[in-house]
Amino acid sequence: MNEEMKELLAYSLDNSVSSAQQATLEEALAQSPDLRLEKEQLLQMRTLIGQLQMPSNELLVSAVMANLERKQDNKSSFALIIQLFPRVAAACVGFILLACTTIYFGGADWIPETIAGTSDLTIEEAYTLIN
Predict the structure, then answer these.
(1) Contact 12/25 with Cβ under 8 angstroms?
(2) Euclidean distance between CA atoms 114 and 106, whole angstroms
């Protein structure tokens, strides 16, 4: 039996073929009992595979459901973070504005030494702080 015809036969069972290929296949089937047997076996195999049913696995179902619930709990934690973010950002902006207002109305200069509170240090005090 020609391997090319076997491949064409297998392909024709699941896909459409051209009319020329169909005619060639019909001619080969009429001449070859082995090819007809091959076709019958492929059709039987297709029928058997179509009848297969997967058994229900309750353990798998419960494991998948538990995994989904755990992921949903993680999503709710993430949603809480997203929900609180604008409030935290507003509190930070408010704190920065309060700090800047205190420095400005306190009569202090906008230099790093004043902001850090080190403008009145002597050289000896600065040396002591560093070491």
Answers:
(1) yes
(2) 11
Q: Which residues contact 108 (CB under 8 A, 6 or more apart)?
A: 114, 115
pLDDT at residue 1, rounded to an integer: 52
- Which residues are CB-contacts of 8 (< 8 A; sequence separation ≥ 6)? 17, 21, 24, 25
Per-domain boundaries in the chain: 3-51, 77-131
Q: What is the pLDDT of residues 66-117, one digit of tens each?
A: 888 887 766 667 777 888 889 999 999 999 999 888 877 776 665 666 666 6
41's enclosing H/E stretch is helix 33-51
Give dist(CA 119, CA 112) in Å, integer: 9
